[in-house]
Amino acid sequence: MSDLPVCPACSSPYTYEDGIQYVCPECGHEWSGEANVESDDTLHVRDANGNPLADGDSVTVIKDLKVKGSSLVVKVGTKVKNIRLVEGDHDIDCKVDGVGPMKLKSEFVKKA
User: Fold this and answer.
1) How many domains does the chain have?
2) Residue 64 and residue 30 in one domain
3) Which of 24, 58, 79, 84 has the highest CB neighbour count under 10 A?
4) Is 44 exposed, middle or buried (0-12, 13-18, 19+ CB in 10 A)?
């Protein structure tokens, strides 16, 4: 039996490969082969040590971070609770005590 995926649009088992794409002959739907490998829509964010992060985790800042537009600094060792993962360069959305809401890069935190 073939190990080709079923069509995500109509669930037809009669799909075939066309180069790097899959095609369904029944409904005409086309999708890329890479989409089959990683089909979940969750963000995969890792901290500075390579540990996976998730929404609601607590992290610790590992480097002094200057807050853009002010003279405030988020000090090393500051614990940030209840983070939220977002897409983009600054992939952590959080509220830092004493500073307020801000976005952080995951490369400057470690999982607490």
Assistant:
1) 2
2) no
3) 24
4) exposed
Q: Do 62 and 106 belong together in one domain? A: yes
Domain that holds residue 20: 1-37
Interval 36-74: pLDDT, tens: 444 455 678 999 999 999 999 999 999 999 999 999 999
Domain CATH code at residue 6: 2.20.25.10
pLDDT at 34: 62
What are the angstrom distances between the C-alpha of 52 and each of 35, 43, 63, 81, 108? 22, 10, 19, 16, 14
